Input
Amino acid sequence: MRRLAIALAALCSCSLLGAVGAFASTGGDMTVRERLGRLAEVRVSVDDKLMNARQLKLVRELVAAARYMDEIFLRQVYADNVRLRDRLARSKASRPILYDYFLVNFGPFDRLSHDEPFVRGVGAKPAGANFYPEDMTKEEFSIWLERNPVDREAFESNFTVIRRREGRLVAVPYSEEYRDYLVPAAKKLRRAAGLTKNASLRRFLKSRAQSLITNDYFSSDVDWVRLKDHDIEVVIGPYEVYEDGLFGYKASFEAFVTRVDPSESRRLAKVVEYLDELERNLPIPDKHKGRGRSLRSPIVVAQLIYSAGDTKAGVQTLAFNLPNDERVRRQEGSKKVMLKNVQRAKFDKILVPIAQRVLAAEEAGDVDFEAFFAHTLLHEVSHGIGPGEIGRRGRKTTVSRELKDLYSIVEECKADVLGVYNAIYLVGEGLYPESFMGSAWPTYLAGLFRSVRFGTGEAHGGANAIQFNYLREKGGISYDRKTHLFSVDEGRIEKAVRDLAREVLMIEAKGDYAAAKRFVKRYRKVPKELKDALAKLVDVPVDIRPKYAYK
Ligand code: ZN
Output
């Protein structure tokens, strides 16, 4: 899913809070207890008021279906996983932490530390996970396809595994390899279909059940994008290919069972009505505005009830954009789902402790979840405004084509800074209360530290370092040299944000790669005061470990 985690083709993986780059090097001689300690355990649940008896029944069927995805993904990660899990389960009483950490990672490899094995006797993780024979090399695969070109489509399919049978490589469809789990999962989906009154959801659940059996996911992907006025948002099936480190062909099974958040969805719909006005309000000359862009993908705000498989392993997803199938994206577009209660959990366990350590006391007290969520939402919305298709030297081109490798960092910086810039405008329009900016500023400032913590090499971390340094230079952020704490200078921050927004937008409007390079070079750095602040955060959790109310 282009989980923010991350990749989100042209979309933002940001909300994913995903990347753990900076932490990934700290495995080494950590004990399993220390490894597990980086994740704050937290109960993830949904407002009871949002679920009536019928929905609860429906959700139980979906969770039951999702649990089969856990079983399949366990088998996709490592050939020896089931035996290892059973062994660790037997010794659970004496070594509960080892068992727990195995479950967190869906295997004996530490996803937060470069896949280091943490179970004694286990070697390095196979690059192709369990999608290919462990002893198969890339060369063998390529030579096989040269000699057997008719196999290419099946071998490179997202939905087959490669096995060795009687000395030959064969492609086995997921529907066959994981049949024992897919057949009962499909049955649960069909039962769930009988429990909803929403025709689009019923249609999707039935067609997805069919996909699990036929191995053809196209039409059910289409049905998913077409879900409308539905109360339960569910994703189930093979999606991301990150686990396949050999070729990136093979998709991992996962599931999200969520409840659409009605009040947030209403607010979002209102914000989307303002897109044109927000475009007109951008701090750049009119000739660079209003190219008729719109949200690249609809956004749904939901509360997570249960997640399974790939997405549950390691770092927890905050938002995702699906489907990945380019044919569906061209035909139907894609859809972004933001998981508000997961954001809440990360806010409580990660952002609040960060604020308490690096912000002046009064400011830290003003850090607020609604402001944090609004900023994430407005960040996503802001990806949809500003220059996209541009003219350069008399020809038509796009910002991303011109800014090349610097595009993501510039675009993430734009979305972040417009996230606050647009909030000011929407407060003026009454969409957020008068007092909103009082908490929005310190929340935004704390968020900069959170992201830089993930390393400045990655687009989001880099973009946040740029904002920090720019706003600091312009006096929008002040620093107390005695207490070593930061605060927002309310007299200067608004202008500094406006200037930064203009600078980034003009780089994009002109498609000026040289200017982008100078800008990134100047501001993407970690000065001593920032480094000292980050050093105070080493024991703040890296991520959360969700405990679901519905199991
Ligand atoms: Zn983004």
Observations:
- The CA atoms of residues 180 and 227 lie 28 Å apart.
- The chain has one domain: 9-548.
